[in-house]
Write a structure and sequence with these properties.
Number of strands: 11
Helix content: 25-40%
Order of helices and strands: HHEHEEHEEHHHEEEEHEEH
Number of helices: 9
Radius of gyration: 22 Å
Strand content: 15-25%
């Protein structure tokens, strides 16, 4: 039986690990469609971190869903929590960690299974010298991110596993105590000599917050209203908005 990992597939995996783009995702999907089932099977929960600005958060709660694409997920929530410095320190962004149990048609490639495969390791030894920028992809990341490549159409607020939280500004002298107590990321504002703590909220606290939001602002939201309030049914027929 021939080795399923051709140089073209190895290059596509390497390019994807270097930087995830729409075109690279499409190419990986095309090349991996006929790989053996063991590389396209996932029987565990997967996690993904996303930083959203106001429009993304609004889409998540007001429009019920946030559009997704071919993207990287991980089997480890700890890997995701620390990915790219963890909770975003940008105050205009909200960090989320999503959880999903992928269906078979959503799985592009299980890179954990790939890296644990003797066929993959043999192909890599054979073709390494011919893989462009292998030191920036396969050699740099390997299986360290416990990655699974999924193709989901969207995620919803029901998929939110953790929220990134931030504190009010506090005196810099309290930083060591705060960091030790909360295991937070600290951001120092040199102009005000103040510190803000950023940390992931537990799954339980996250779900309580989301439930409270949904009780306070029942869906669907009025996307055209000034205050994004609940749509109050009106009598009579109205022309649809365009």
């Amino acid at each position: 039986m021939s080795n399923p990992f051709t140089l073209e597939i190895l290059q596509a995996i390497n390019d994807w690990q270097r930087s995830t783009t729409k075109n690279r995702g499409k190419k990986l999907e095309t090349l991996c469609v006929n790989l053996p089932a063991q590389y396209k099977t996932v029987d565990f929960a997967c996690y993904r971190k996303i930083n959203l600005q106001k429009d993304g958060v609004f889409s998540m709660f007001a429009h019920y869903r946030l559009p997704e694409r071919i993207s990287s997920w991980s089997s480890s929530v700890d890997v995701v929590k620390n990915f790219k410095h963890g909770v975003s320190l940008n105050i205009v962004e909200q960090s989320f960690i999503y959880q999903t149990s992928p269906t078979p048609n959503e799985i592009i490639l299980n890179l954990i299974a790939v890296y644990n495969s003797s066929d993959f390791q043999s192909a890599l030894s054979l073709h390494r010298k011919d893989i462009d920028n292998v030191h920036l992809g396969i050699d740099k990341y390997g299986n360290s991110q416990l990655e699974v490549v999924l193709k989901k159409d969207f995620v919803t607020h029901n998929d939110i596993y953790m929220l990134g939280g931030r504190s009010s500004a506090f005196c810099v002298s309290h930083s060591p105590i705060i960091q030790k107590m909360s295991l937070s990321y600290l951001d120092y504002d040199i102009r005000k000599n103040k510190v803000i703590a950023f940390k992931w909220l537990s799954h339980e606290i996250t779900r309580r917050i989301i439930d409270r939001i949904l009780r306070k602002y029942p869906q669907p939201f009025n996307a055209y209203g000034k205050s994004y309030g609940y749509i109050i049914p009106k009598k009579g027929k109205e022309k649809p908005r365009r």
